[in-house]
Amino acid sequence: MRGNNPHFSRSTVHHELIAGHHLQGYMESRYKTYRNFQTPFWIEGWALYWEMLLWDMQFPQSPEDRIGMLFWRMHRCARIIFSLNYHLGKWTPQECIDFLVDRVGHERANAEGEVRRSFVGGYSPLYQIAYMIGGLQFYALQRDLVGPGKWTMKQFHDAVLHENNIPVEMLRAILTQQPLKKDFKTNWRFYKLK
Description:
Layout: H1 6-16, H2 21-28, H3 40-56, H4 63-87, H5 93-104, H6 108-120, H7 127-146, H8 153-163, H9 168-175
């Protein structure tokens, strides 16, 4: 329980349940079910987007809850580092475990479970980066549509969930009513260039 204390678990609850994966699954079984496509950028991005949004809404009330949410954000970034290093042949599973213990602060048993899950769970090499990139894409899309007052938060979230599991840029094209041609090429920059 040291690695899954209540303060660390509070942000995970929203990632896994409402408004995260459980709500996603519920809505995907009801809207545009003909879409037979899956991308971790949609699946994990949506759940991480809610973690970021709840942070912005000052959901964590206590310092301990804030530390818990920041721990999971750091953990998601660390997943990118160890997963890419492993898949590029630079790190062994033991080096990945040591990285999570030494740099992120995981309990060793939790780090071992995390690394085992990442490499024997059937995840693609880019799965771990999909959390952060997908989350940032949803965050930017919400900023572009809700920020200037074009949509309410409810309108935005309902529209996203009614489209079902598709690449976030395709979702953006649909929500902003861009024409989608057969030779559509990606060009959205959801991040700010300096």
